Amino acid sequence: MTYLVLALVCLGLGFAGAWWVLAPRKQLLEGVGRRSHVLYELAEGDLENVARDLEQIAEAEPSDATVFLALAALDRRRGRIERAKAIHRTVLASAELPAEQRVSALVGLGRDLLAQNKEEAAVGALARAISLAPRSVATLETLAKALEQAGAWERAAAAWERHEKLVEGRRRRESRVGRGHAVASLALAALHDGDERKARKLIERAVNLAPDSGHVWTARARVDAAAGSTTAACEAWQRAWELAPGGAHAIVPDAWGWASDVGAQEDLLERMLASLRAVQDPALIVALADCVARKHPEQAAAALDRVSDRSAFAVLALVRLRLARGQRDLAREAAMKAVPIPATVCRQCASEMPRFRFRCATCGAWDSAVTLGALLATNREY
């Protein structure tokens, strides 16, 4: 009987020992399995399920700050900025938070504040992050963008320069472009203050840093215009609208207004005609045709007709041009063309949705499909 009791006790101790060893391992394996599932859902773009799984992991492992940081970043992508800020501030309140995670939380908080257009507060959070990790590439990049939004161009240029020294290849070129943009904005600020000599020096640096930037060439055109260099300004305006066709609706009228003030319409019109014959971007052709049609309506109509199968705006501009000239039959013919279907994008993340769907494949938002024009109109209201 004594041996039986002893055997049972040993067996019980064995089971207890095995449970003590295997239970944590089982929990670890379950945790790894949950994280693997989250990674799969993230790769599939199923953000709603990712968020739900992260919340469950956070409840099961409340001491893991990385999970909370991931959940906050996901909330920001889903537009839940206030909750993302609250999570980042809760993580930062921990006195035992490792330095690396503290930097991540500060960067996340800075990005939350940027999403709410609170540039000064964002710069403060990111500056604290940089003080903890002065060689962090992601932190420097976010700080540079925040300084740009805040209009602190000199500090933004310095941040991009530091970033440029830490990266290589394509990212280094992007850093140079960012610095070029900041220096171009410094040139415009100097021009506004009446210091044309300083503006001239700064814009030369900006062009050297970002020779393919439409923003830089727009600034160059304004500096040349202020200096009275008509030919150089015309050339700069042309480079600007050809390099940034998406902004032609603002660049072209700006250039035409300047040319009208200084009597340089003929020079600028020649450059507009040259661009109109060469470019293929519908947005740029529509913007240029509006000015060119005043003296060369047929050339403007030919350019609009060339891209009318790709742009509803080009069709509309062509119809208006034909009607203004009394060409009703040609206007009717243009209006009867098959109008291209407007691009459909997600209201939440602006990703293209090739086919109409009730749910975005990128961010998982429901009922978010809008036309690109509607999205742009909404953004302009804000």
Structure in a nutshell:
The chain has 4 domains: 63-150, Serine Threonine Protein Phosphatase 5, Tetratricopeptide repeat (Alpha Horseshoe), CATH 1.25.40.10; 154-221; 259-340; 343-382, no CATH class. 75% of the residues lie in helices and 2% in strands. The chain has helices at 2-44, 47-60, 65-77, 81-92, 99-115, 119-132, 137-150, 153-166, 169-192, 196-209, 214-226, 230-243, 248-262, 265-278, 282-292, 297-307, 312-324, 328-335, 372-381; strands at 344-346, 369-371.
What does this structure look like?
It is a single chain. By secondary structure, this protein is an all-alpha fold. It has 4 domains: about 65-150, Serine Threonine Protein Phosphatase 5, Tetratricopeptide repeat (Alpha Horseshoe), CATH 1.25.40.10; about 155-220; about 260-340; about 345-380, no CATH class. About 75% of the residues lie in helices and about 0% in strands. It contains 19 helices and 2 strands. It has helices at about 1-45, 45-60, 65-75, 80-90, 100-115, 120-130, 135-150, 155-165, 170-190, 195-210, 215-225, 230-245, 250-260, 265-280, 280-290, 295-305, 310-325, 330-335, 370-380, and strands spanning about 345, 370. A two-stranded antiparallel sheet has the order 1-2. The termini are far apart. Mean pLDDT is about 80; it is low at about 5-35.
* Oligomeric state of shown chains: single chain
Helix content: over 70%
CA distance, first residue to last residue: 86 Å
Q: Can you tell me the overall shape? A: flat
CATH fold descriptor of the largest domain: Serine Threonine Protein Phosphatase 5, Tetratricopeptide repeat
Order of helices and strands: HHHHHHHHHHHHHHHHHHEEH
Spatial order of strands in the largest sheet: 1-2
Mean pLDDT: 81
Integer-rounded radius of gyration: 29 Å
What percent of residues are in strands? under 5%
